[in-house]
Amino acid sequence: MNPLERYAPLVEDRESFFAACERPLPSVVRVNTIRSTPDRARQALDQEGVGYETIDWNPELLRLDERGPGTSWPYFHGWLHGQEEVSALPAIALDPQPGEKVWDSCAAPGSKTTQLSAMMDDRGVVIGNDNNLGRLSALRHNAERLGVTNLAVTKQDGRNFSLKPFGFDAFDRAIVDAPCSCEGTVRKNPDTLDQWTLDHVHSVSAVQKGILSRAIQATKPGGTVVYSTCTFAPEENEAVVDHVLDTEDCEVVAFDNPLESRPGVTEWEDETYDPSVEQTHRIYPHLNDTGGFYCAKLEVTA
Amino acid sequence: MSDPGDGTADEDLQDNVGQQFGRLPATPADREVAGRASRQEVVEFFAERFGIEPAVFEGFSFWEKGKGKIWIFADEMPTPIRIEGLGMTVLRTRQEHWKPTHSAVQRFGRHATTNVIDLTPEQAATFARGEDQDLPEWDGDWGYLIATHELAGEREPIGVGLYVYDELRSTVPKGNQEELSVL
Question: Is A230 a catalytic site residue?
């Protein structure tokens, strides 16, 4: 069975949902403001005859007409980075400020991490962590290419991440863009559905709870933690948030989402979740012609 | 490396440990690790060779991991620190001629005023492919130069060139080389 069928009851427009999941994803780039400005990047693309559309909710994102971003002068100069439109959302929800200390628990390959650095004007510290050496090398390569200097890269298990090396004991903000079942990336990787199993959903959900708990513990009271995935599975989304609401000092807070979304679900199969998860966001591919996504913003209360 | 026959300060210095980042000492006199460049020397190198004002590097810290591989970081960290990455690579110092990295030149090269070579659109495309080219018209210094071209109305650094014998050699790393259009 197509695992997407599982989520059809959550989506009001079944036909548009399935149709969107079968279309390839538009090729989107983010302007790296450490190196350039949206104006100059657009000028450079014009000069080179590369066609693009602007994206109304964010001047830093451009939808390219055809080829990928890898073969243009502005890309060569690190002015552009390929990043799916919807994946720009968690950093915007996190809203990191220059000079802060920010933890990215699952950072590789680094689109969101380097976006955090750019939003911080490359000042302060982003600790970009991942537990896989190969993926870390992609993160390092991307950060270097984009001229990021405020990133420290670590290889730890996010569930028991230690701040000991850094000389400070709490983050201002943290982002958990968790490993997940990834059905939301089906437009980019159709194979992802072939590997889908319910067992994996349950095991990865336990990992997600562990990493998100650690992020809340490692963030200052009053600080912000953003949780995101590219899966539709409530077990990996609302259930994870519901878990930390029970076990950690935090609450769900609303945020301004420039993309069209649906509220988090409070019931799934035999489970019910805390009503505040309605303030989290589900993004289905047909709503904004993007990948599928989930994003929750939490405030640490003690 | 300390010289056993020479009773100077070097014999008290520690060896560089390749697996960790160590902060560069402020000046050569503060040096505790043998052969390690100092912050002052690094900043002076960029000022003397390329005319990049020392103020550009204010607020950044400099680190060594691996012999002579210098990294630049936007903030502070305790030293030494064993992690996978700290900021961006900026310079290689254990050869006679120090070599700025491709990423350093792309990031900080726009502040350069000397040893900058402006390339024509054709030359820029050749350089980005990683190819060497004859450039007898350059009458400046030999050695490492910052190659630039004009993009979106401004001068933009492309990478590090090595100029010797009327030839500009591109040192754009293999993974960054690209077949790009002649603008």
Answer: yes
